[in-house]
Amino acid sequence: MTNITAQMVKELRETTGAGMMDCKSALAETKGDMQAAQDWLRKKGLSKAAKKAGRIAAEGLIGIAIDGTKGVVVEVNSETDFVARNDLFQGLVKMIADVALTAGTDVAKIGSAKAGSLTVAEAISDTIAKVGENMTLRRAASVNVGKGVIGSYVHNSVADGLGKIGVIVALDSSGKTDELAALGRQIAMHIASTNPIAVDPARVDPAVIKREKDILADKFRQQGKPEAMIEKIVDSGLKTFYKEQTLLEQPFIFDDSGKKSVAQAMKEAEGRVGGPIKVAGFVRYALGEGIEKKESDFAAEVAAAAGQK
User: How far is the C-alpha of 169 from the C-alpha of 71, rounded, in Å?
Assistant: First the structure.
């Protein structure tokens, strides 16, 4: 029998917003599988959030670099938030982002690429020795476009191109660069705020769609809906899902009425830009997403250090 710990219940509550006993039941029913427990709660209509970003547990910085029609975003982790304010660390993250523009986004290749007289891996080791804290290059990603611009936005910025959330978005267009750049920044800010899973419904992972359909179908069956109606109800539910989760269908955060989608805002902007606009792709990195940092009991550590039980 799976041991359901208080920490597991706490994590599920934070992710779903469901009650403690419901979370405990969900974990028991799914043998402690966190993802399956989230789905179980949603099927029961007990989850208050369809999706919530993982707890931000790691420290460090997100860095962005752009060269013409190509942009990269990297995440470099450290042990404490204090290091993020260190000039040496900030310089290291900027350098890594710049190197990634030519070295590509494979972490191993970035590490072996030269940055002056040192490789990136050597530069990281050198900074560790100077700062006295461990740090690692966790991941990197890029977008590019043949004609157009790379829009970008950094949230909680500590320096130019460095912060806690970084977004790059590629806008494909032969229109005016200055108008495109302004629109690109707005769309990047929108992505930072809403965290879409894809540009449009056609680019959503089929596995994600299947999972969503299964959850909706099971939920409506448990509500006693006739089987003949479920397919239509699920299709309607998917439309709502796409409006909430895909970039072009989301309500544009810069539209005060809340009625205009990102796609509609882009269509209106084509007149100012002087040509069609397409989103070729985007990347959104939030510092530490998906990493769970071990929580320490400070009192217990002090007691242990003193030789007490």
Answer: 8
d(CA 222, CA 218): 6
Domain interval for residue 205: 6-53+198-273
Same domain assignment for residues 94 and 214: no
Helix, strand, coil tally for the chain in percent (to 5) = 50, 20, 30
- Strands ordered across the beta sheet of 165-172: 148-155, 165-172, 278-286
CB 76 within 8 A of CB 135: yes
Spatial distance between the Cα atoms of 142 and 21, rounded to a whole number of angstroms? 43
Same domain, residue pair 219 and 179: no
**Distance of alpha carbon 114 from alpha carbon 121, whole angstroms:** 9
Predicted TM-score of the model (pTM): 0.77
pLDDT (tens digit, 9 = 90+) per residue, 278-304?
A: 999 999 999 988 776 555 454 554 455
C-alpha Rg value of the chain to the nearest Å: 23
Q: Is 254 helix (H, G, I), strand (E, B) or coil?
A: coil
Length of the chain: 309
Q: What is the pLDDT of residues 190-227, one digit of tens each?
A: 999 999 999 999 999 999 999 999 999 998 888 888 88
Instruction: Let me know: does 52 contact 15? Beta carbons within 8 Å.
Output: yes
